[in-house]
Each structure stands twice: as C-alpha cells, then as structure tokens.
Amino acid sequence: MNIGVLALQGDVREHLSALAESDVLARPIRRPEELADVEALVIPGGESTAISNLAVSFGLLDPIRKRIADGMPVYGSCAGMIMLATTVLDGRPDQESFQGIEMTVRRNAFGRQVNSFEAAVAIDDISGGDFHAVFIRAPWVEEVGDDVRVLGRVKDGPAAGRIVAVRQGNLLATAFHPELAGDLRVHRYFVEMVRQAA
Ligand SMILES: NC(=O)CC[C@H](N)C(=O)O
C-alpha cells in the first residue's frame, strides 16, 4: 500500500510513525511527481496558513485538488482538517484549501486561552471506547453539507457537542491529533478506507 504524508510543514514524522505502526510504510511528499506515486495522502497537523503557502509554492495545490476530485483517499488532522474544508472561518484572506469536504471550519475555534486541551471523543465506526483526544489550537466544524457524515463530537466540558471528526466519501478529517496520542485506531481506520478504495 502506497500512502504519502504531505511533508511541507507540521507533524509529518508522527504520522509516518503512526502509519508504520499500522503496518504501512508511508513516504513524505513534497513534489507533484511524488504525489503521482501514491494512492492516498495524509495531511498533518501544523499551521494551515504555512501549509497553504508552501503548497502553492511547491506546485501542489492544484494537483492535490485534482486527485481529491478524482477520489483519492485523504486523511487530515487539525491543520489537515482545515486544508480539506470548502469554507474556512478566521483564516488568513489569502489562505487556500484543497477543498473536498463540504464543511465550514473555524480555525483556532476553542479560544485563545485554551491553546491545548484533552477531551473524550466517541467516533462512530471505530470501536474500542472513547478517544482521549488531544487538541492544539484546533478548529471545530460549524456546518456540514448533506453528504458529510459527522463521526465524532466532544463529549464533555465547555466544548461539549462540537463536531471534531467527519467523513465524506474517501475523505476523513479530525480536529484532534491521534498521531500524538499513541492511539492507532484512526490511522488503522484510514488504512482500511484506502484498502476499500483500491
Ligand atoms: N495543531 C494544529 O494543526 C493547529 C492548526 C492551526 N491552528 C491552523 O490554523 O492551521
């Protein structure tokens, strides 16, 4: 199986290790030629404005948009979720996205005071109990289109009920970082999505 991790900025290494532990030897992607060699892509957490800028300068914005439109499976965590959204609130005016998931996300939504926190999230489709989800200056999803399935919401605390995991067809996004939490269930779920798409 040939999965790439978009390696322009962010926690690329952590996704590569989470995939390796899920028995997939993934590779970093920085150039359009490398993208052409993979059947699926992970967009890491990091800073969506930086990923957007670098995607434009590395000539990856349009090729990734096209692959997504053609059905390539993609998983985005945090900044990666923002990069998959059709509409971004509180983004920089020139910020671009790869599009794909019909949703409105709000950047840094959980508030400036709470830069990072942990909360329980239950994910439909994934058994084994709640995720101990790590959020770092995370977005949340404010609106979803008809074809988007809400897979997970924050269970408790001030942000209870907020949508933090979604899927639309072959596209998966979480506002939290399973790659930092040592819980491989989201990566394994994505690997299974890739297997089924193949
Ligand atoms: N941990 C993260 O990926 C943070 C996302 C970041 N706040 C952004 O807007 O891109």
UniProtKB/TrEMBL annotation:
Annotated residues for binding of L-glutamine: G46, E47, S48, R107, I136, R137
Pfam families, per the entry: SNO
Superkingdom classification of source: Bacteria
Catalytic activity field: L-glutamine + H2O = L-glutamate + NH4(+); aldehydo-D-ribose 5-phosphate + D-glyceraldehyde 3-phosphate + L-glutamine = pyridoxal 5'-phosphate + L-glutamate + phosphate + 3 H2O + H(+)
Signal peptide location: none
Gene3D superfamilies associated with the record: 3.40.50.880
Biological-process GO terms, alphabetical: L-glutamine catabolic process; pyridoxal phosphate biosynthetic process; pyridoxine metabolic process
InterPro entries attached to this UniProt entry: Class_I_gatase-like, PdxT/SNO, PdxT/SNO_CS
Record GO cellular component, one term: cytosol
Catalytic residues of the enzyme: C78, H177, E179
PROSITE patterns in alphabetical order: GATASE_TYPE_1 (PS51273), PDXT_SNO_1 (PS01236), PDXT_SNO_2 (PS51130)
Enzyme Commission number: 4.3.3.6, 3.5.1.2
Pathways per UniProt: Cofactor biosynthesis; pyridoxal 5'-phosphate biosynthesis
Keyword terms, alphabetized: Glutamine amidotransferase, Hydrolase, Lyase, Pyridoxal phosphate
GO molecular function: glutaminase activity; pyridoxal 5'-phosphate synthase (glutamine hydrolysing) activity
Family the entry assigns: Belongs to the glutaminase PdxT/SNO family.
Subunit and partners: In the presence of PdxS, forms a dodecamer of heterodimers. Only shows activity in the heterodimer.
Protein task: Catalyzes the hydrolysis of glutamine to glutamate and ammonia as part of the biosynthesis of pyridoxal 5'-phosphate. The resulting ammonia molecule is channeled to the active site of PdxS.
Protein name, as recorded: Pyridoxal 5'-phosphate synthase subunit PdxT
The organism's taxonomic lineage, starting at the top: Bacteria, Bacillati, Actinomycetota, Actinomycetes, Micromonosporales
Encoding gene per record: pdxT
